[in-house]
Sequence to fold (280 residues):
Amino acid sequence: MRVLVTGSSGQLGKAVVEVFFKNNIDVYPIPHTRLDITDRRAVEDIIKAYLPEIVINCSALTDVDLCEREKDRAYKVNALGPKNLAIVSEKYNIHLIHISTDYVFDGEKETPYTEFDNPNPINIYGKSKLEGEYFVERFSKRYTIVRTSWLYGDGNNFVRKMIEKAKKEKVLKVVDDQFGSPTYTYDVAKALLNIAKDGAYGLYHCANKGVVSRFEEAKFIVEKLGLNVEVIPVKSEDYPTPAKRPKYTPLENYLLELEGIFYARSWELAMEDFLRGEDL
Fold:
């Protein structure tokens, strides 16, 4: 199996490359510095050079507030980029696995979202990612879309931010009215490996199990690391941001489990694994 990973320098891309390599898969990391997925000719040149059986697209503009400020850039990377990959993958009969997000939902539901719930994004990031999904569905026959949630791993993320702040400050103020499923990149990478091996097509959700607020997540991090800092709950309205955040976007891995492809562990167990490797 020959697998090409775009966005391989990002936190999910790094995990995918490592997990696939450890499982003796021929994996070819392509960082964003080497490939601009918004350039269709460049996409085709890379595909022709490697002729992979599978392309895993981890490239995305994930800074939610930046997407709000730079709408055109968001749509280019998150929508037109996947469109280019879908068109070229279809031309060369390649299985395209595309990563999407819980932010395609509006957060108005009171139970975790399944693959059968209707998307309704409320910010540019979510809207651009949803258009990327539509392009993949429209231009590729052999595709898999994998939505994930609140990712953390080897990169810039909420968990690392909380740790850094806790080292410098005595009080952490964290919103307690945004709920999701914190998800370890290496767990997603393992699910992607199973998807690639099984040739599983369609739409899947992939997140660690459980529902937690950002405040509860921060408190868990601080307690597990024994950091001397007080965590105080606040409301989102007290800390306005350029992009509106959905209040509730936990994901249920309904189809992954129904089809027996992958069973995720709890967010607590995954987080403990990650925190054991953090250098304090």
User: Anything to note?
Assistant: Residues 2-157+181-209+249-264 form a domain with the Rossmann fold fold (CATH 3.40.50.720).
